[in-house]
Amino acid sequence: MKRGAMKNISLAMLARQIGVGVATVDRVLNERGGVSPQTTRKVLQAAREAGLKRILPEEHRFPWQIEVFLSSNDSFFFPQLAQDFAAVADSLGYRRLTLHRTFVPESQPTTLARRIARSCQQRQGIIVFGNDHPAVHDALRRCREAGVPAITLATDLPGADRLCHVGINQLQAGRTAGLMLGRMTPRPGEVLMVSGRQDYSAHRLRIQGFREVLSQRFPHLQLSDVLAGEERREQITRLVEQALCRSRNIVGIYNTGLGNTQIAEALARHRREGDVCWITHERYNTTRQQLAKGSLALTLDQNTRQHASWRST
Predict the structure, then answer these.
(1) Which of 143, 166, 189 is the last residue of a domain?
(2) Is RNA-binding found in the keyword set (predicted)?
(3) Are 197 and 231 in contact (CB under 8 A)?
(4) Which domain holds residue 68?
């Protein structure tokens, strides 16, 4: 079609000409986002060639479409991260970044993988809190092949095709917890470790670091087997309750993830508040209350807003 041959071309005609929907053409011309860079270029090129009677947007003005995949568990951490990502996106402005947030159960890595694979066909960037699972690795490989950068969030996947990982050093976090618990617990006894899902490297590394420090520097403390809470509150309650019933020699508890409310309740039932040195992660209402009561000895916090800022800029 020659330039100027269709000065009065309609959006429907333009859509038919290039083989896309009218809604897609409308989103491109009105800068609403949600269209891949390839299709955006195709629509704008066709509109220019047709001499469409309107001011056409520049390609570089389209906001990046970013999708953030987070855990759907009911802990404080992920809803707070979601809020912080939204705040950062708002501060950047809709012309720079459009944020999409997707919550996936931690027990469904194949569901997460399918959604990542679908997302890399629609987005210009992926941020993911993901399982160390073959399906997730494969989905991130597809992202790389499609030219869509992926950043891991909170828990790293160093063997995957990700652009980078931005977050705290989880091994050092576990080592810090071990050092503090060891120094705060002079009397000998048993230490419980409560952990989330082991297909997340963050939990594995925290436990590894904690175990290394206690084993090397505090021989008066004996580590029990890891209580696998699996991010299920009922299971955490049952495991901690069984451990406290089994032994009065428990002098410390380290929790790597969800379940602080359940641990606090178990300690209260057994009248061990303040008697057991309990260390956990994140500062929020529950941990602040337990710190004030003296039940919780220490919490290792991380700045969720800074996490969101690092990943979005």
Answers:
(1) 166
(2) no
(3) yes
(4) 63-166
